[in-house]
Amino acid sequence: MFNDLPDNGYEFAEEVEQHEKAEERLLWIKRGFAWCYEMTDKQREVALYKLFTDGTEEEIGKILNIKQHSVNRLWTRAKKQGENVII
C-alpha cells in the first residue's frame, strides 16, 4: 500500500501536474465532440478541412464541390455554434 507513495514532494507535485493536464485534455476532447455533434454534416466536413489542412477556402470548395462563399458561410456558422457549446 505504501510502496506507491512518491519519495518526495517534487515527485508528488509532478504527478498532480500531469493529472491536471490530463483532465484539461479530456475537457477539450469533450468540447470537441460536443461541438461536432452541434454541426451539420457539411459544416463538419468544412471544419475538418479548415482545421487539419492548409487549404484555402477555394481549394476546400473544390474538394467538397461547393462554392467558396459557401465554405466561408459554413465555417462561420460552425465557429458560432462552437462558441455556444456547453459541457
Rounded to an integer in angstroms, the radius of gyration calculated over CA atoms is: 20 Å
Task: Indicate the mean pLDDT.
Answer: 85
* Count of DSSP-assigned helices: 4
User: Rough shape?
Assistant: elongated
Helix-strand topology string: HHHH
Please describe what this structure looks like.
The chain is mostly helical and 87 residues long. The chain has helices at residues 9-38, 41-52, 57-64, 68-83. The model has no long low-confidence stretch (mean pLDDT 85). Helices cover 76% and strands 0% of the residues.
SSE diagram, text form:
Layout: H1 9-38, H2 41-52, H3 57-64, H4 68-83
Helix pairs in contact: 2-4, 3-4
Feature tags:
mainly alpha, 4 helices
Provide a quick synopsis of the model.
With 87 residues, the protein is mainly alpha-helical. It has helices at 9-38, 41-52, 57-64, 68-83. The protein is built from four helices and no strands.
